[in-house]
Specification:
The complex is a heterodimer of chains A (about 180) and B (about 200). Chain A is mostly helical and about 180 residues long. Chain A is about 70% helix and about 0% strand. In chain A, helix 1 packs antiparallel against helix 2. The N terminus of chain A is likely disordered. Chain B starts with a helix and ends in an 8-residue tail after the last strand. Chain B is of the alpha+beta class. The chains are: A mainly alpha (about 180), B alpha+beta (about 200).
Chain lengths: ~180, ~200
């Protein structure tokens, strides 16, 4: 099972105590969220840091959470936003070396079975940030347009547009590989 | 019959799962949890010390005022004692939102831009609280946003609010957070509770 379910899996009841609750969420979701973050940023270490920050924010704001059953939703959104912030901070740097970053194979590329998959992954990494986010949320988390719009804070129309453009770009790339 | 885009989408799903699973396998949850706990405990100690210092300062200020006013003739405390329950910066001044402001609002220009205002919180997402809200006179004060990683004393947004003829108009006075994209200069009208919102 690769994708993440929309709501918190495996934890039907959270402990009432903040320390215990956040620790339980950590054990249950850290790996999945690192997987999600890894699809949105360029390396595993950054993905781990983004997830760590998300848990730190959750812990800090725990007393303010009215609906603690939605904690997984907070974490997921926090990871997406954290990855977004990270990429925004790097934008200036990346604009200077984007060619090299976008085309350099990642250490994980060798887990991909064939040339097409590797090309698709490289293509995804080269997409504009928003298109990449929308495709990850759509095809990995399997969120609806409305859920993606809410998570990213954009309109449903923009979600459609980014998804369509991103998928078209990837399809073009795949056809070039064939 | 599937087209090229469908085939790309199917392959993309497969690639995303493969990559995410590789990252899951590569990360060391136990080690990162230990690091998280160490950082958390350090943060708690810092918060405790900051709270103690703040309380000591407050007690000193109260003592100085009482002394200056000549009210305090009781024995003077030799040293203020920090109290562990006080920590963190103060909440912005304000009162719970009036009932006229509470409820669901939709932007007159963007039907997707729905804002829920509650007595002491606000929400854009429909499934949780986005942050805390208070009213201070003509100002709507928003803070502790979950989307804006700026805990108090930072991350406070201030909007001039006006409710005329059932239309809520917000004018931004200051806001360091991204929610201003949904709020600044926006006029809202009342709407019903959208499906899935609490």
């Amino acid at each position: 099972m690769g994708g993440l379910p929309a709501e918190s899996p495996g934890l039907s009841v959270l402990p009432r105590d903040r320390e215990a609750a956040v620790s339980a969420l950590y054990v249950a979701h850290h790996g999945s969220l690192v997987g999600l973050a890894r699809l949105l940023v360029d390396d595993l270490a950054t993905a781990e840091d983004v997830v760590q920050d998300a848990f730190a924010a959750l812990y800090r704001r725990w007393p303010f959470l009215r609906d603690r059953d939605a904690a997984y939703g907070y974490l997921r959104r926090s990871v997406v936003n954290g990855a977004n912030s990270h990429l925004r901070r790097l934008r200036t740097f990346r604009s200077a070396v984007s060619e090299r970053i976008a085309t350099a194979p990642s250490p994980e590329t060798n887990v991909l079975a064939d040339e097409q998959q590797a090309a698709l992954w490289a293509g995804l990494r080269a997409l504009p940030r928003r298109q990449r986010q929308v495709l990850v949320l759509r095809y990995y988390l399997e969120l609806s347009e409305a859920e993606i719009a809410t998570t990213l804070g954009i309109s449903r129309g923009s979600v459609k547009q980014h998804a369509s453009r991103g998928l078209d770009a990837l399809t073009g790339r795949m056809e070039a590989v064939r | 019959m599937t087209g090229p885009a469908d085939r790309t989408a199917a392959l993309l799903t497969e690639v995303l799962r493969t990559q995410a699973n590789a990252a899951r396998a590569a990360t060391d949850t136990d080690r990162r949890l230990q690091e998280f706990r160490v950082a958390r405990d350090r943060g708690r100690r810092v918060a405790w010390v900051a709270g103690a210092v703040a309380m000591a300062g407050l007690l000193a200020a109260v003592f100085a005022v009482v002394t200056l006013l000549g009210v305090g003739r009781q024995p003077q405390p030799t040293s203020p004692v920090p109290h562990a329950t006080v920590s963190g910066p103060p909440t912005p001044a304000g009162r719970p939102l009036p009932t006229a402001l509470q409820g669901f609002w939709v932007s007159v220009r963007d039907a997707q831009n729905i804002l829920q205002l509650k007595a002491t919180s606000y929400d854009f997402g429909g499934f949780h609280t986005s942050g805390q809200a208070l009213v201070n006179g003509d100002q709507l004060v928003l803070f502790e946003s979950l989307q804006c990683d700026a805990p108090l004393p930072d991350g406070v947004g201030r909007y001039d609010w006006r409710l005329v003829g059932g239309r809520l108009s917000l004018r931004m006075l200051s806001d360091p957070c991204g929610r201003k994209g949904n709020l600044a200069g926006v006029t809202f009208v009342r709407t019903t509770q959208p499906p899935g919102w609490q």
